[in-house]
Structure formats: C-alpha cells, structure tokens
Hints:
With 178 residues, the protein is an alpha+beta fold. The chain has helices at residues 7-12, 58-78, 93-100, 105-114, 141-177, and strands spanning 2-3, 24-28, 34-40, 49-55, 87-92, 117-120, 132-138.
Amino acid sequence: MIPSGMFPLGLEQKKAFCLNPGFRISCFLPFLHPVRIDVHRKENAGAAEKSITILSTPEGTSAACKSILEIMHKEAQDIKFTEEIPLKILAHNNFVGRLIGKEGRNLKKIEQDTDTKITISPLQELTLYNPERTITVKGNVETCAKAEEEIMKKIRESYENDIASMNVSFNMKEVSLF
C-alpha cells in the first residue's frame, strides 16, 4: 500500500528504471530479476492509498520493494513531506497468526533483528470480501527492506506448508479409495 499521490508519479518519471510505464510496469532491477509491478489505480478511486502487486522471484520482489521505498523516500524529501512513510504489506489472515507466532515471538524477533516497528491491523477490519490484514513496517529504507524479506519469508513458508499439507491429505484420500 502506498500513498496515492506519490508512487505513480515517482515511478513513472523514472523512465530509466522502468521499460513500460503505465498500469503494468515491467522493470529489470540491477539483480537481473524480471519484475512486473501492477499499480491498482482504478480500485478504490479517491482512496488515500493504492495497492501495488509485485510479481517476481522472492529476491526480485524484495529488490523491487526496496527500490520503490527509495523512490518514495526521495520524492518525500523533494516535496518536503515530513511524515514517516511506512511500508504496508497485505497478507491473507490465514498466514498472519504464524507470522506473529506464539505470544508474538516471531514478530518481536523480526522487529529486533531489523530495528523496525511492526503493527498488524486488527481482526475487526476483516470482511467476507477482504480477508487480508495490513502489516505496517516503520523504519528507514534499509531496515524496512530487511523486515519485508523476513516477513515474506515467513508468509511464503506458511503458504508452502499449507499446500504441502493439502497434497498429503489428497494423497491419503486417493489411497483410501482403493
């Protein structure tokens, strides 16, 4: 999630950074990971924040996220925007509990290791149509980027565990049919 007035302007002006500015932006970052960035401008017209989707490898996604944060922070300095610009990540509620961990241990460890402040939106904000929670990371560009890597690693791990357990249960059902 990004402030709606900052990202599209900042990224589209960086033509050297992006090959195809617009709703879908294909970028090639210094690490040579192909990245597709979708800017969701038409959803929630007039909202204070807009969502973007970054599609790439885990390394490419983290590199793109860091580059976007750098652009946003530079643009904020240029226009003398004094408020802190946090990184906001949307994550399905199914994975948030495992990200937090028992008694908040996982989240506290990420905060300590990355020197950031991380908050997660309350369960009351969930709806049938929006099962996602907002993970807000506050810190400088470097620490936010490191926290994003750790958060996404934990979420990917949870997702992969869910998929693996579904495959095991499907295989067991197949065996029981014979």
